[in-house]
Amino acid sequence: MTTESSISLRRDGAIAVVTLSNAGRLNAMTRAMWRELRAVFDGLRSEGDSALRCVVVRGEGGAFCAGGDISEYPSFRFSEPSLREFHENEVWAALQAMLDCPLPLVAQIEGACMGAGIEIASCCDIRLAGASAKFGAPIAKLGFPMAPREAALVHGAIGDVLARDMLLAAGVHGAQRLYDAGFLLQVLPDNEVALAAQSHAQRIAVLSPQAARLHKATFAALRAGAPSAHVLLATAYDYADSAEHREGIAAFLAKRRPNF
């Protein structure tokens, strides 16, 4: 059985597709994969005014991500400095790079979405899942908690009730429960998830990228709290004379499709 792992980036016109791959391990995240994930999203952020408009995040082979690759754990988890390095400078650095991405992120969730998987999905703006997808973070069975910033991220995305059950009781829940909690936009038949994610990304791709960037900045400020949101007000209307603003209004008045 191969255990080759990677994070790949493929461009399909205005849409980037980021794929988690760890063959034979349901795409469990290795340390190398966390570092690659950060590099991919740092690269997307640094591209600035590229032709990309949206990112789909998916797993290879019918699973999203089953968590961390536990086969690596004995090599670093039993030392406080190396454990801190892993969570703060590898895992959180990658998740922060996703959160900082100015492009809308669509999660295409199939199969297992556990631990690291639910953290990665929590960084996405829109989440679509197959009816058979499973969600949880049963790390209490492994004798350790979710790192504080990772737990705060998941708690904010899935809500207090499910976060407590997942972390305190190792609860695993189906897609419908996560939809009811507001974590998922849609639950679809398993064989329709990939097409739905692509279609949703295409819908986003024809809209104003400036509006998407500004909305993402607003959401980030709200996540950071009131002081950041207040600072954002100073530049909130700088787009007034922008080309996209003028084009959007002109297209509506002319009853034509805008060209962003």
UniProtKB/TrEMBL annotation:
The keyword Nucleotide-binding does not apply. GO terms for molecular function: isomerase activity; lyase activity. Transmembrane segments: none annotated. Pfam families: ECH_1. It comes from the Bacteria. The keyword Transmembrane does not apply. Keywords: Isomerase, Lyase. Signal peptide: none annotated. GO terms for biological process: fatty acid beta-oxidation. InterPro entries: ClpP/crotonase-like_dom_sf, Enoyl-CoA_hyd/isom_CS, Enoyl-CoA_hydra/iso, Enoyl-CoA_hydra_C. PROSITE patterns: ENOYL_COA_HYDRATASE. PANTHER family: ENOYL-COA HYDRATASE, MITOCHONDRIAL, ENOYL-COA HYDRATASE-RELATED. Belongs to the enoyl-CoA hydratase/isomerase family. This is Enoyl-CoA hydratase/isomerase family protein.
